[in-house]
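Hypothesis: this fold can be encoded by more than one sequence.
Test: take the structure tokens below, design a sequence, compare later.
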């Protein structure tokens, strides 16, 4: 390892300390042989090669980057010729933009020709222009912390835009002016929020100002790309930082307008809490309740996108349902129903998959169910319906409900926690006694049809739902009693008289 450290040559005005460089190179230790081998292959072919972007940044942060990104003076066809004999597999799906991918053993690499991209200003699709120098390639990157490189195979550190200084200060700056950078690629504004959430970065003053001025240009970015950046922000260690950045800059007005809309004007008598701050607190608390990544499903291993989306969106129906009551209070009646509809619409607009949309929408719809039963004792029927309505979302609903308590009244908070503890105990008891996770009517469809003498169809479906309601309300009563209840119900139906 020391041999590699001694080979470093620094090309920056404000050199990092030798210790910092040694630690960074040591962190790259597992991939140093690969870096050397690739660098020598490209050099032998007469081309430059550099490790660039995230892997270099993460090495200084002591983090392991999941990707190895390289940039080179070679054109795509030449990259393929160099990588072909070396790699186990190569692919050229990004060849149009100068990128060739390869797999060698357990390592996956992407090598891209020096770029000098231009964008058409209408969509995010780049017009590819290949560049001739590493420094020009670094200038087109999003932020200076991602515009550092290691020339290979010598491991020469290149930092023409003071990315290391920005990294030390946890400050996001752009290599070019922020107006040019965001004008080339408006998605970089959302990427700034993601880096804030992932790495704890703040914005340089000129970057913050440019985001506010150019927030509306995010509209030209595809919904899928916006969705991906939002998800990465939510799955980061500190999503609140990124979300606040999106709201303060105005970018959220265009990609998630329901969030800034929660900044309801607080009346002078403080008759309701700040819904926006409450939402961010619920998100923080939900994250704190997640299980470790290797936890079983019923512990909701984190980071969990569905839970975090539900926490973020659970109260978005409040602005539309706020009413000032005659007695001086404020109500948000049925905000969970309105919020569920809004959640479905927003997640569909962001092109989330159907299962995610369905799950998050259902959690928003159910998040007040616990409070609907008040402080009184839960009947067995209420517990059964709570469990069956939540289905496999029950572990997440437990966490969302607990996270939704942000009151500063400690006595009230303890009472709510105790009540929910009692509910979870009741659920466990009934699950053990009645197998609620797979609750069904005590007569199946064929048996219902035979008893009533009816064919499959809508009427049979109604009969099935009736018996399911009986099962939920009364628990197991046995097939004979279920048949009696079914016949009594049938006698009251108009179809029985036909």
């Amino acid at each position: 390892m020391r041999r590699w450290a001694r080979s470093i040559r620094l090309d920056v005005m404000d050199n990092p300390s030798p210790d910092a460089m040694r630690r960074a190179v040591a962190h790259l230790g597992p991939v140093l042989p690969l870096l050397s081998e690739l660098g020598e292959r490209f050099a032998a072919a007469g081309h430059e090669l550099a490790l660039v972007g995230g892997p270099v940044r993460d090495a200084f942060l002591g983090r392991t980057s999941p990707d190895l990104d390289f940039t080179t003076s070679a054109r795509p066809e030449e990259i393929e010729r160099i990588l072909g004999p070396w790699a186990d597999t190569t692919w050229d799906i990004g060849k149009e933009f100068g990128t060739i991918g390869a797999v060698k053993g357990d390592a996956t690499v992407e090598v891209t020709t020096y770029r000098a991209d231009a964008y058409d200003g209408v969509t995010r699709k780049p017009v590819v222009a290949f560049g001739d120098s590493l420094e020009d390639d670094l200038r087109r990157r999003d932020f200076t912390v991602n515009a550092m490189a290691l020339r290979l195979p010598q491991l020469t550190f290149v930092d023409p835009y003071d990315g290391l200084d920005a990294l030390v200060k946890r400050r996001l700056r752009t290599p070019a002016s922020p107006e040019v950078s965001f004008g080339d690629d408006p998605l970089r504004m959302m990427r700034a929020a993601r880096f804030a959430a992932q790495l704890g970065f703040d914005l340089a003053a000129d970057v913050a100002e440019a985001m506010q001025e150019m927030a509306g240009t995010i509209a030209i970015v595809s919904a899928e790309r916006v969705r991906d950046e939002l998800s990465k922000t939510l799955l980061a260690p500190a999503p609140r930082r990124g979300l606040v950045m999106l709201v303060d800059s105005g970018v959220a007005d265009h990609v998630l307008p329901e969030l800034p809309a929660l900044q309801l004007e607080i009346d002078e008598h403080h008759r309701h809490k700040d819904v926006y701050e409450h939402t961010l607190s619920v998100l923080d608390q939900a994250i704190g309740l997640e299980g470790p990544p290797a936890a079983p499903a019923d512990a909701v291993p984190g980071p969990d996108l569905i839970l975090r989306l539900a926490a973020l969106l659970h109260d978005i129906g409040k602005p539309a349902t706020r009413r000032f009551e005659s007695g001086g209070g404020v109500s948000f009646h049925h905000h969970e129903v309105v919020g569920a509809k809004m959640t479905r619409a927003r997640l569909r607009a962001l092109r989330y998959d159907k299962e995610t949309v369905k799950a998050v929408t259902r959690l928003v719809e159910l998040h007040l169910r616990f409070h609907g039963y008040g402080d009184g004792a839960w009947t067995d029927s209420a517990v059964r319906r709570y469990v069956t309505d939540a289905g496999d979302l029950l572990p997440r609903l437990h966490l969302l409900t607990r996270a939704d308590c942000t009151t500063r009244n400690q006595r009230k908070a303890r009472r709510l926690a105790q009540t929910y503890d009692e509910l979870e105990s009741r659920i466990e008891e009934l699950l053990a006694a009645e197998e609620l996770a797979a609750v069904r009517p005590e007569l199946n469809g064929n048996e219902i049809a035979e008893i009533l003498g009816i064919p499959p169809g809508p009427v049979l479906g109604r009969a099935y739902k009736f018996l399911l309601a009986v099962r939920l309300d009364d628990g197991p009563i046995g097939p004979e009693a279920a048949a009696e209840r079914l016949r009594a119900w049938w006698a009251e139906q108009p179809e029985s008289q036909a």
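Residues 1-14 have pLDDT under 50 and may be disordered. Residues 50 and 151 are 4 Å apart (CA to CA).
Hypothesis status: open.
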